[in-house]
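Example for tutorial group B:
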């Protein structure tokens, strides 16, 4: 029995959507798949046939009255304002989609509340794991409501405070990178980019999920390492008083990020999932500077990376020459093979196979139950707590 699989995909940044597409592409072609998201445009051009359900965009929706706004959020939830028509429509559309399609597994990337909704709607749920301080009742409750957890990273990056019983139901795919461009040798990458083959090159990378890399600290870094070429990719966050230097170049969005990562001696980047694995895939040395995220997600990931010697980091952007020189010295001393080992080329295939196998296991016997199997309930049996 080929039960449908559905995905809830958060539309902040592109990471959730890219990961979802990587998983779906590797699923059986006869597997019906539905994507529920407020950002359907993120899937433009996706060639694998899927059913997309557009959800309302709840971000920024206004609570209609001061009295409703004043109601406290229950500890078991994180973001459940009262009186939002957009939220009611979202939850109704999700439950209707699960029901109408007879979904066998709902993959949530990411939302604790929607994982709980899936369990309330009697649909098996798998939640995508993220790092962070998530020991609150809301997160733990949503994890316990799931039939499994999918961690798109190496088990060596697991947090020590993640409960053993939840770790036991977590599938670690290895480092899942959604970037596909081939990685060139460093000399070839520099030739393509017109870079000096022998000059130390430091690439600073920011994705689309945040406000951009703070530019002022980079101007200090460029002065602390004046012989290095600093190339800044993606958006920057500027305060208006920065001074530019000849060895510091802002390139903005570039189409060939992989070539820059391959050309770099050191990459300075945030601790986003795909970003870390992009650098790992290119085999570089990483200085990870976590961006602010809910529940300190990127800070916990940065700690995990530094703990196993896969990256250098510091609590805040260096503000003086000595601090920059110390941080860059730590990066130069890294063994790049440690970071590289965190990238698993088959991670998406392994994760997709696990999701499909889990779905089959959960629903095996649903059409023609074999009553000889021990423990299989008959139609008259009820759960122990049933009235």
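The residue assignment follows.
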């Amino acid at each position: 029995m080929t039960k449908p699989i559905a995905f809830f995909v958060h539309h902040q940044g592109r990471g959730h959507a890219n990961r979802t597409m990587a998983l779906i592409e590797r699923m059986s072609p006869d597997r019906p798949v539905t994507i529920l998201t407020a950002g359907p445009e993120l899937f433009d051009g996706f060639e694998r046939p899927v059913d997309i359900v557009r959800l309302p965009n709840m971000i920024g929706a206004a609570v209609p009255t001061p009295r409703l706004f004043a109601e406290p959020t229950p500890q078991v939830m994180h973001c459940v304002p009262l009186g939002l028509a957009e939220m009611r429509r979202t939850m109704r559309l999700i439950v209707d989609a699960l029901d109408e399609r007879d979904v066998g597994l709902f993959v949530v990337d990411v939302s604790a509340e929607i994982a709980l909704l899936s369990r309330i709607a009697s649909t098996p749920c798998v939640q995508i794991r993220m790092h962070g301080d998530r020991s609150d009742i809301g997160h733990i409750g949503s994890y316990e409501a799931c039939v499994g957890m999918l961690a798109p990273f190496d088990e060596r990056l697991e947090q020590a405070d993640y409960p053993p019983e939840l770790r036991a139901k977590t599938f670690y795919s290895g480092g899942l990178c959604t970037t596909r461009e081939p990685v060139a040798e460093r000399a070839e990458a520099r030739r393509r980019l017109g870079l000096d083959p022998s000059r130390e090159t430091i690439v600073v990378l920011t994705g689309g999920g945040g406000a951009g890399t703070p530019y002022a600290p980079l101007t200090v870094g460029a002065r602390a390492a004046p012989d290095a070429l600093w190339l800044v990719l993606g958006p920057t966050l500027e305060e208006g008083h920065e001074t530019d230097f000849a060895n510091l170049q802002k390139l903005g969005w570039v189409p060939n990020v992989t070539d820059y990562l391959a050309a770099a001696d050191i990459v300075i980047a945030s601790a986003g999932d795909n970003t870390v694995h992009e650098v790992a895939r290119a085999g570089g040395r990483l200085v990870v500077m976590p961006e602010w995220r809910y529940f300190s997600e990127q800070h916990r990931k940065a700690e995990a990376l530094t703990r196993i010697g896969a990256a250098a980091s510091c609590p805040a952007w260096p503000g003086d020459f000595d601090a920059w020189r110390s941080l860059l010295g730590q990066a130069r001393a890294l063994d790049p093979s440690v970071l590289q080992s965190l990238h698993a080329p088959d991670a998406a295939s392994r994760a997709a196979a696990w999701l499909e196998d889990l779905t089959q296991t959960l629903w095996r016997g649903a059409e023609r139950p074999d009553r000889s199997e021990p423990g299989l309930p008959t139609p008259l049996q009820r759960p122990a707590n049933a009235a």
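The chain has 14 helices and 14 strands. Compare this with the pattern of hydrophobic and polar residues in the output above.
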